[in-house]
Amino acid sequence: MKHLFFTFLFLSQIAVSGAQENTSPYNFNWKKDLIYASGAGLLAAGGILTEFQVRGLTEAQVNSLDQYAIPSFDRPAIRNWNPDAALASDILLYGSVALPAFMMINRRARKDFLVIGFIYAETALLTLGVTELSKGLSKRTRPYGYNPDVAMEERMARDARLSFFSGHTSITTALCFTTAKVFSDYSDNPTHEALVWTVAALVPIATGFLRYEAGKHFPSDVIAGYFIGGAIGYLVPWLHRRKPIVKGMSWAPYSNGRQELGLYVNFTL
Q: Which is nearest to 213 in space by CA: 159, 143, 135?
């Protein structure tokens, strides 16, 4: 998952040369957004470095793990181990990286493809940074670390201590929610918007479920990843929304044809 960092960093750097027409729903200031993206990139780099400091458990430490120290809500996850489910979750994660191409269906969005790419890059870098930092600081053992049916070398690996919270879920949710929000900002079809939002909500849920079935994450890891990724995925494009600027106004009488109702105010934006 780490090499996604370099993909999104590249996208963020090429996008600063783009500009959007006045019809764009987004207000893009390349100087400010370059600062924001650089900050998100530094957070992602810091999170990855923090995660790399984590060391795997020894065999004695693995054998001393106490499943009853796990909250009862999470405890059933320790019985799960399904490599096929893990592979399926990988497919959903990496498939979500292609979501910016989906926005090119919209003609207005195609004109803003660099701006949209920059929004995606900021979303991905911020989500990746928060996720990796959480994993590196919490050092929570994955469910399969408690499972005696899993090979000891798997349970002793560094990756076995990176459970909280689910990165597959957080990144997939962030990218799906960003896609749905951006689509809604350009769309004027409520039916299409509802359909896109439904898919955007369900795909990360499927990803999280597969991570649970794979024995990679506890339910609490998945829930945290879903809500944190969803919040970032929605807020980043929302914060880029164009704010109306009133340059002037004019007054004109308004009537419904039968009686005078008052004055009509015309704002020039």
A: 143
